[in-house]
Automatic annotation (TrEMBL):
Source superkingdom: Bacteria
Domain Cobalamin-independent methionine synthase MetE C-terminal/archaeal: 420-743
Residues reported to bind L-homocysteine: I425, G426, S427, D594
Molecular function per GO: 5-methyltetrahydropteroyltriglutamate-homocysteine S-methyltransferase activity; zinc ion binding
Catalytic EC class: transferase
Active-site residues from the entry: H689 (proton donor)
Pfam families: Meth_synt_1, Meth_synt_2
Segments forming domain Cobalamin-independent methionine synthase MetE N-terminal: 5-322
EC code: 2.1.1.14
UniProt cross-references to Gene3D superfamilies, sorted A to Z: 3.20.20.210
Key word Metal-binding present: yes
Protein name, entry field: 5-methyltetrahydropteroyltriglutamate--homocysteine S-methyltransferase
CC cofactor: Zn(2+)
């Protein structure tokens, strides 16, 4: 007997980011739709071919979203928010981009606010939040893009003379509603109209000969209340069944208190992800015990979020036992979609000590096939388990001296800043010249000395502009950094930075997370020379600019177990702390430690959250524990939901926090009031993404509101994020308005 092998999904950016480049050219009007689709089709084809080559039992398709899977489904279900009126006329391809970007590529419709983007569970992938009207009908169905994938997959199989069942991936109806925003207070009320739409889609897939539909229900890994558990029963009992057979997939964590709900859904089977389970063996047993005896259990053993090879011995033991009980009802798969991994390790020059230890998406296909054979005992496990050397001992987190009030007074005595001090978040425009210089330097065409001169020119330009604008606290502009995490990873021991390990973050935006390979430490100063140079050009206080330990860890590939992460986070914190010390010794009196990903690593289950907050806060505090009372520590956060974690942000005890408020409305300030935020705060007075120059009047609204909750002595004025994506013209005009506004409020509120 054999065990069925499959994956839950695959990256769609292409091994050389072909999809990204094709779409961006299309959006810029540099190529037509036909050639764009042709280039994307090549990536799709190779995704299917690679599954066939890896000899997986099922061929998974339907997950090839052009922007985002939730968006694809919402578009297929006919969702068109009111401000996009008329957009239903656009074809599926253009309509989804209009929703995602707020800009219609065909030029038929005016710009409007794009759909909101939110992090996909605890990953750095962003999905688009569907906006459902109270009377959403889900009637204007348009399944073309999903159907086409099935047709194309069948064609590829036929051409190669391969006969394998097809499985289509869809976001499940309950998670779809949970993740949407709706005018209805009770989102589950949409089920009555949503389920018939799903049934229609499934019916069409069935007619095409699709054997299985994988309905992704990742919310099953959250602590769901009774209402949502009932929604599952309601949804699935009315959903059209057979064909295709339905597999409900959970991932990123265990089923927790939803285990009973999941096991008893009227479907052919369920998928569980054991790669993040604390006790994977027991977890599998527990599910088998509850699962009715005719159902399929797909066990996800190949981690869709780890770049390390799978521990075959550990997996073999678990799967052999499961196989003993389930026989051919056992399926073996990736834990989650492989979307969160770089595509192909073959493009890397892997350092010797890592050889044989890494697996990207393509390599994981082979691993899934191997694991299925481990289950039946057809092959024996390879002794390949990878262990990181984490011997670098730290005796717990340290905390800096002094209370905020006395620290802030000491800092003010030294800095002598005006009321409502103005500053920016760190980066200034990453110009074409900067990118050119860096590319040449990386290629070896520009010497270290010439590169340094080029960057110093940019720093000088930043200083001149800030001088002219009359900003109070300066930044050097981060010209030398491509990415705020990668930069530091490059200078720390214990990280490996791949050359082509891109992962989709949202739409066509990709990131290249560094990979943790061992103890993390800082052999020498990473930023001091740049900041010192910047400070030498001005009498204004220069703000040293660092990335915080929580963000560096969350935006890297590192083991998922809590204990290891706690150690690594603290090792990074110590490296950053040493950098703070060096900056301070070099005469820098203000240091910003960015933590935009502070919330991202929050575990999905409430029971694990307190531990995370405690560790995250402690790591941040450790990262500036060396700071004198008179050294001012800033932090910065943006584009995340902070409302539910303000107490932990407060506990970080940074002297000043600059935080994005423009997008989340001003409710955030309100929440700070409720929580009694005691330190200083710079609410972002304008959205750095705004295409037009925001007016002083609009910016003042933020300060007028903030001052209701925060005493003026503790208020700062700044944009809501870094300016690296803007050009200089936009930057200068927006900042000029910000300075004009500040002068006004200084007068208005000075007594
Ligand atoms: N200091 C960084 C910058 O200005 C912060 C970026 C971020 O918040 N993501 O670019
Ligand atoms: Zn930011």
């Amino acid at each position: 007997m054999t065990v069925i092998s499959h994956i839950l999904g695959y990256p769609r950016i292409g091994d050389k980011r072909q999809t990204k480049f094709a779409l961006e050219k299309y959006w810029k009007g540099k190529q037509d739709k036909a050639s764009t689709l042709e280039q994307i089709q090549a990536v799709f084809n190779s995704n299917i071919n690679e599954q066939i080559d890896a000899d997986l039992s099922l061929i998974t398709t339907g997950d090839f979203a052009h922007y985002d899977l939730v968006l694809t489904l919402a578009t297929a279900l006919g969702v068109v928010p009111k401000r996009f009126a008329g957009a239903a006329d656009l074809d599926t391809f253009d309509r989804q981009f209009y929703f995602a970007r707020g800009r219609d590529n065909t030029g038929k419709f005016a710009d409007t606010a794009a759909w909101q983007m939110t992090k996909w569970f605890d990953t750095n992938y962003h999905y688009l939040v569907p906006e459902l009207a109270a009377d959403e009908s889900f009637a204007n169905l348009d399944f073309e893009q999903i159907i086409k994938q099935v047709v194309d997959t069948k064609e590829i199989l036929a051409k190669r003379g391969v006969n394998k069942p097809i499985k289509v991936v869809l976001v499940g109806p309950v998670s779809f509603l949970y993740l949407s925003s709706s005018e209805l207070e009770d989102k589950t009320a949409h089920l009555d109209k949503l389920i018939p739409a799903y049934s229609k889609l499934l019916g069409q897939l069935g007619e095409l000969g699709v054997e299985y539909a994988q309905l992704d229900e990742p919310i099953l890994s959250l602590d769901l209340d009774g209402k949502w558990q009932q929604a599952f029963e309601r949804a699935y009992s009315t959903l059209q069944r057979i064909p295709p057979k339905l597999i409900v997939a959970s991932y990123f964590d265990t089923l927790g208190n939803n285990i009973n709900t999941a096991c008893n859904l009227p479907v052919a089977g369920i998928h569980i992800d054991i790669t993040r389970a604390k006790q994977p063996k027991q977890y599998v047993q527990q599910v088998i015990d509850q699962l009715p005896t005719h159902k399929i259990l797909s066990v996800g053993v190949v981690d869709g979020r780890s770049v390390w090879t799978t521990d075959q011995a550990a997996v073999a033991e678990i799967l052999a036992e499961a196989y003993g009980k389930l026989a051919d009802r056992l399926w073996v798969g990736s834990g989650s979609s492989l979307l969160h991994l770089p595509v192909d390790l073959a493009h890397e020059t892997v350092p010797e000590q890592l050889q044989g230890k890494l697996a990207f998406a393509k390599q994981k296909l082979g691993e899934v096939a191997i694991c299925a054979k481990l289950a039946t005992g057809e092959i024996a496990p390879d002794a390949n388990a990878v262990a990181l050397d984490l011997s670098l001992a730290l005796d717990g987190a340290k905390v800096r001296a002094g209370q905020f009030a006395s620290r802030y007074a000491a800092q003010q005595a030294k800095l002598n800043l005006p009321l409502f001090p103005t500053t920016t978040i760190g980066s200034f425009p990453q110009t074409v010249e900067i990118r050119k210089a860096r590319a040449a330097w990386n290629k070896g065409d520009l010497s270290d000395a010439d590169y340094q001169t080029a960057m110093q020119e940019e720093i000088k330009r930043s200083i001149d502009e800030q001088e002219k604008l009359g900003i109070d606290v300066f930044v050097h502009g981060e010209a030398e950094r491509t990415d705020m995490v990668e930069y530091f990873a490059q200078y720390m021991d214990g990280f490996w930075v791949s050359a082509n390990g891109w992962v989709q973050s949202y739409g066509t935006r990709c990131v290249r997370p560094p990979i943790v390979v061992g103890n993390i430490s800082r052999p020498k100063a990473m930023t001091v020379a740049w900041i010192k140079y910047a400070q030498s050009l001005t009498d204004k206080p220069m703000k040293g600019m660092l990335t915080g330990p929580v963000t560096i860890l969350n935006w890297s590939f590192a083991p998922s177990d809590t204990k290891t992460r706690d150690i690594l986070r603290l090792q990074i914190a110590e490296a950053i702390n040493q950098e703070v010390g060096d900056l301070q010794d070099a005469g820098i009196h203000i240091v910003q430690i960015d933590e935009p990903a502070f919330r991202e690593g929050l575990p999905l289950k409430q029971a694990d959250q307190a531990h995370y907050w405690n560790q995250a806060v402690n790591a941040f505090k450790h990262s500036c524990s060396i700071a004198h009372e008179s050294t001012q520590i800033h932090t910065h956060m943006c584009y995340s939901s902070f409302h539910d974690c303000l107490e932990h942000i407060s506990a970080m005890d940074a002297d000043v926090i600059t935080i994005e408020t423009a997008r989340s409305g001003l409710q955030l300030l309100d929440a700070f009031k409720g929580n009694g935020y005691a330190n200083a705060i710079g609410p972002g007075v304008y959205d750095i993404h705004s295409p037009r120059t925001p007016s002083s009047e609009n910016m003042q609204v933020v300060i007028d509101e903030a001052i209701k909750y925060v005493p003026k002595e503790r208020l700062w004025v700044n944009p809501d994020c870094g300016l690296k994506t803007r050009n200089w013209e936009e930057t200068v005009s927006a900042l000029a308005n910000m300075i004009a506004m500040t002068k006004k409020v200084r007068e208005q509120y000075s007594n």
